[in-house]
User: What shape does this take?
Amino acid sequence: QVQLVESGGGSVQAGGSLRLSCVASEEIYANNHMGWFRQAPGKEREGLAVMYKGGVGTHYAPNVRGRFTISQDNSKRTTYLQMYSLKPADTAMYFCAAARIISQLLQGRADYWGQGTQVTVSS
Assistant: This one.
């Protein structure tokens, strides 16, 4: 089955950390670039980080660069988003996504989406 499954969301106080995980089916992981997005209530979906297929490069949105890190474990077909120094403004539903063409992810589009995992940061 072709799918993405996120986990790792939760509630944390400002300044805390969380690590999100996204397990991809074999077909998706082998053939797609991976990315993390988020969407807060009443706001547009926002791209956060992209991992190029094969781990050959990364790209971060300016507002999370230095606080968020995207990484992968190929043995687990898992893409992670490590988040540090979380702020209340980081509260959102976080989504994992995959696309065959890197420009799609960089433009906020994807071929596959996970179901999302909620992150809530309290002050």
In short: The mean pLDDT is 96. DSSP finds two helices and eleven strands in the chain. The longest strand covers residues 92-99. Residues 11 and 120 are 5 Å apart (CA to CA).
